[in-house]
Automatic annotation (TrEMBL):
<dbReference type="GO" id="GO:0015937">
    <property type="term" value="P:coenzyme A biosynthetic process"/>
</dbReference>
<feature type="domain" description="DNA/pantothenate metabolism flavoprotein C-terminal">
    <location>
        <begin position="3"/>
        <end position="205"/>
    </location>
</feature>
<dbReference type="InterPro" id="IPR035929">
    <property type="entry name" value="CoaB-like_sf"/>
</dbReference>
<dbReference type="GO" id="GO:0003824">
    <property type="term" value="F:catalytic activity"/>
</dbReference>
<dbReference type="InterPro" id="IPR007085">
    <property type="entry name" value="DNA/pantothenate-metab_flavo_C"/>
</dbReference>
<dbReference type="Pfam" id="PF04127">
    <property type="entry name" value="DFP"/>
</dbReference>
<protein>
    <submittedName>
        <fullName>Coenzyme A biosynthesis bifunctional protein CoaBC</fullName>
    </submittedName>
</protein>
Length: 208
């Protein structure tokens, strides 16, 4: 049985004390993967951004808010895990400067300067020791297979789950599990719980 890290949910990047950028992510896919892994007898640690979904009580839950916090918790946890599944939708950009006070409206357009946040899955991919594995997700609106495979390579993943924008705010998902050569290991459609169960079986079988 394995110890699996699952990143889940969105992250937030604050502009000022009340406003933030985020991603549309409910955490439901992460929660479903965690339940599936626990039911298969694995130990699960979830690093999650702010969500209202309920995670299985038997998973260890580490709550974070920003992408940097998720990165820190994930890298620390991954060192003690066999594998990781990156189901989170971390916010990819953050304001270069965070204002300490609430930004007052002036009637003029507000320009924001954004810089990229660190890529958590790519960092785990670089951190991977012999025997450890990383599975990423890729949400694409076009050329799904090709783009997902490029991401797998760039982020040093072992497998990648390609899905489309219909996954957002939906209880359904339609995914393909791809290996580094772009081979389709599995094509799964159904509610996120069914998709998670089948995905996990395929992932653990492939990784063995
Ligand atoms: O590059 P893109 O965001 O499409 O990649 C999606 C994959 O990368 C997902 O597995 C997601 O959890 C992960 N990711 C990450 N850190 C980021 C952005 C994406 O771990 N900053």
């Amino acid at each position: 049985m394995a110890r699996i890290l699952i990143t889940s949910g969105p992250t937030r990047q604050y502009l000022d004390p009340v406003r933030y950028l985020t991603n549309a992510s409910s955490g439901r896919m992460g929660a479903a993967l965690a339940s599936a892994a626990i039911n298969e007898g694995h130990e699960v640690v979830i690093v999650s951004g702010p969500v209202s979904v309920e995670y299985p009580l038997r998973a260890k839950l580490i709550n974070v808010v920003t992408t940097d916090e998720m990165l820190e918790a994930a890298t620390e946890t991954f060192a003690k895990c066999d594998g990781a599944i990156g189901a989170a939708a971390p916010c990819d950009y953050m304001p270069r400067f965070i204002q300490k006070q609430k930004i007052a409206k002036t009637g003029e357009p507000l320009q924001l300067e954004l810089v990229e946040t660190p890529d958590i899955v790519a960092t785990l991919g670089q951190q991977k020791r012999r025997g450890q594995w990383v599975v990423g997700f890729a949400l694409e609106t076009q050329d799904r297979r090709f783009r997902a495979t490029v991401k797998l390579e760039k982020k040093l993943c072992d497998l990648i789950v390609s899905n489309g924008p219909q996954a957002i705010d939906s209880d359904q998902n339609d995914v393909e599990l791809l290996d580094g050569a772009g081979n389709v290991i599995a094509a799964i459609h159904g509610n996120k719980e069914i998709v998670a169960r089948k995905l996990l079986k395929k992932i653990t079988k492939f990784i063995q």
